[in-house]
Amino acid sequence: MTLPKGLADNVALHLIAAGQLIDSEPERALEHARYARQRAPRIPSVREANGLAAYLTGEWNEALSELRAARRMAGGPGHLAIMADCERAMGRPERAVELSRSEEATQLDQEDSVELRIVAAGARRDLGEIEASVVSLQIAELDPKLQEPWSARLFYAYADNLAAAGREREAFTWFVHAANADDEDETDAPDRLEELAEKLGGPDVVEELVTEAEAAEIGGDDFDDDAAEVDDDFDELDEKLDEEAGSEAAADDETADNEAADDKAVDDEAADDKIAGDKIADDEAADDKATEKAADADNAGGGARAQ
Length: 307
Prior knowledge:
The chain is built from 14 helices and no strands. Helix 3 (44-56) runs antiparallel to helix 4 (60-74), helix 5 (80-89) packs antiparallel against helix 6 and helix 10 runs antiparallel to helix 11 (189-199). The protein has helices at residues 5-21, 26-39, 44-56, 60-74, 80-89, 93-100, 110-126, 130-136, 151-164, 168-181, 189-199, 203-217, 227-247, 249-306. It starts with a helix and ends with a helix. Helix content is 76%, strand content 0%. It folds into 3 domains: 1-75, Serine Threonine Protein Phosphatase 5, Tetratricopeptide repeat; 79-138, no CATH class; 140-219, no CATH class. Mean pLDDT is 81; it is low at 220-234 and 301-307. By secondary structure, the chain is mostly helical. Residues 216-307 are annotated as: Disordered.
């Protein structure tokens, strides 16, 4: 969609402002993104910006609607992990799990795929499937020797789910890995370690676990040797979840119908917004023309006086 130059420049300025404010002042970023959306609802980047800002301010339904619209316009898997997190936040963890098992999930890059795994594990935990949440995170990227951008969050999520499953010694070890990988202070792993230290029997036990964890980070454990067994466990879990999903086919059909209705509503809204946007563009063009006429008249009057 091509916008008139004046309108395009205006929309671009608000998108830039949203991008600059989104980390520090997400509420103001959302105001700018909504303004841009009102004037250019058929631009994928506008809908994406609106969705991301809405997500960071806790406007889950708006975020999901906007990101779904952006994905439909631009193609590709889009922000699938954020969409799944919105579903979870709105009390629909089963839909978050379903997104993680969708065809689009296979198109994600490594970092986004890990993020989606983390969200889906939390959703399984919401559903009471604690052991499933643990097993679902036992992936190749769960390696303490790795220090990738997502490592701290993955290690922390794994530790958190282990703690929820009552496996506190293992949880302590992975909180150590999370703390060591967390250069940006994204997690509260040190606080969680302090909480668990008291439960595990005091300094001697803690020192032993820390030593084991740090040895693993430099290649001193048998993590890799257990990888094949972990994969087999996850395959078995997937088969079980597939069977459960089959028994919920009717509910899934209803979900699909609801999503189709949501998409139609988004399209209808976008069409209305397009009409409004076109009117705004026409009004701005008329204002510009009137301004030019007034300037011409002033110039003509000035010329006459000069003569």
